[in-house]
What we know:
- The chain is α/β, with parallel strands linked by helices.
- It is built from 22 helices and 20 strands.
- The chain folds into three domains: 90 residues, CATH 2.40.50.140; 299 residues, Rossmann fold (3-Layer(aba) Sandwich), CATH 3.40.50.300; 156 residues, 3-Layer(aba) Sandwich (Rossmann fold), CATH 3.40.50.
- Helix content is 37%, strand content 19%.
- Helix 12 links the parallel strand 12 and strand 13.
- The longest helix is centred in the N-terminal third of the chain and has 29 residues.
- 40% of the residues are buried.
Amino acid sequence: MKLEDRSLRLTPKRIEALHRLGINDTDGVLSYYPFRYDIMNVRPFEEWKEKDKVFFEGEIVKTARTWRHGRKSSTVFEAEAYDRVLKITIYNRPWASNLTMNQRIFIQGIYMGKNRVTAVSYDTKPIAEHAAVTPVYSVKEGIRQQTVRACVERVYETVQNEIRDIIPEEFIRRYRLLRKADALRRIHFPSNPSDIEKAARTLKYEEFLRFFTAVQLLKNSDADSLIKEAKHFDGNMILQAAAKLPYKLTKGQADALNDVLRDMSSPKPMYRLVQGDVGCGKTVVAALALYADYLSGFQGALLAPTEILARQHLISLRETLSDTGVRIELLCSGIPAAERKTILEDTSSGKIDILVGTHSLIQDDVTFKKLGLVAADEQQRFGVEQRRKLRAKGVQTDFLLMSATPIPRTLASALFGDMDVSTIETMPSGRRPPVTALIRENSFRSVLSDVRKLLDHGRQLYVICAAVDQNEEYHARNVYDTANALQVLFSDLKVGVLHGRMTSAEKQSVMEAFAADEIQVLVSTTVVEVGMNVVNATGMIVYDADRFGLSQLHQLRGRVQRGSEQGYCWLLTGSDDPKTLERLEVLVKTNDGFVISYEDLRLRGPGDILGTRQSGVPDFILGNVTEDTNVINTSRKDAEWIVSHRDNPDYAAVIDSVNAGLDGASGYRD
Ligand code: ADP
Ligand code: MG
């Protein structure tokens, strides 16, 4: 049901608040679970410490006086509790003056020491009627907890009789789960901690069951029996091409390449993920696979998430496959129309062997004569959807995905149920991890002298901001203001800007200028995350580091780890939230991409990492892939059962709910 529905009687202001939280319908409201709970423990006075949150019942022994200061007010009264008189102050509740002598009231507030309490709220219900547990929702600036709570209450009351169970009856009974309506009631309005536990058990199971059902459905829609033309190529030619590289493949690269070549020679379509840390050398594996594809008489496509990266790939592919006779071209929006036309023609006539570009390559009007392999870089931005679209066009290709947010093997096999996975665990020798420092101040000051030194040595610097200009979300540092400020500070140097809203010609020229050291300080959004390969840029500053995911930051700092020179990364944050700081500390402590993405999974859930959010596979809001292994294993088995018996009407609800998500998906993000 839409939020605007009359029966909900939500005010436009409330609807707007919900929209800002990314909620668009009643399902969205009900699955906006609290991220934590305040549990009221009525503790004896002896245990109260200054600044503690306290809850207690007292009796008014001195009625209230109110002072008004303009629109604000403060009200003070006294209550007896714990055999003593407490002086209570409450702000902006002038009606507290109506409290009468000897009235019993319940007070929530902060203990200020010396028998003084600043009340946050009070009411006259007896203590036994108070919910001991208060949900706390994640909100944005300007949205109050009360508002979210009120909306959830309103929605729940209105639709509670229409909430259907998604989990099939037999599993509800087998695992003694709750009805959905009951679970939602307990997660949003718990009367004690055990309500939350019980509700979470059911809702987690449902989340995982939907996830694995989606994975199974996708796998099945490919029908295991699908057959492609097996590829035949001379393995020695591949070895020769590898031998011409300026380095020797690491063991991880060689193993991954073997897996890929084996899949390609088989009549079963390949769907393989090659994962490994930033800089482990996945590109060359793809390049050699594309070469094998070419030798077998097929065309290949290499997809990149951004144009910047596509250009980078074009260069390295041409380098790797120089003097093999392979024709490699680039197609992206920056290509002039006439040239584009030729490229399209030559692709469809088969004169071009490998086409490099962004995902529009397999979406647009591009036709191939005989497409045999699609390699997609940074897999997290290309969902299963692309594969479905290609299949729908009747194209039966091999698929090679590359991901730089590697996850431990055991987890990978659980989560990527429908993919084969090769993991490159070895890094080329001689790499120096960047020195990373976490600076607890969102300003340049504390790193200035270090940065100055680096620049004086002729090195270059990246400065990363979360926003492009001032109008953009929150109060993040933005590219333009930062660039202006830095240009004043480093008047002897040239400061450039780079962000996704520039035209590709503009981007191109800035990148070339940076690569040529005509620009020394590049202020940018995360568009540099992948693809920038400027060996002389050895410093990176990230403003508002707390706004980025760990894996993303790890990718970013990979930019200053390109050569043998020591790189430096300064993560700046104004946050003093201990959890946030602890999360960022992970990057200071380790440079191991596996550990980092594991932490990301633990702290944020896999939606971002797997890129599944857009392809309709449900996200885990409550479930935790690193801790809930029991639920994962059970729900995975159950999902397999459900999909292989999908005609059973009892399973219609879960299958429909998953399909609704899959169909509504756009497939990728930009
Ligand atoms: P990623 O896995 O992050 O995509 P790339 O494929 O971009 O990494 O490789 C990073 C750099 O490492 C490139 O400059 C590449 O030429 C180099 N490289 C790749 N494999 C090796 C190797 N076995 N030994 C040394 N350098 C390598
Ligand atoms: Mg790469």
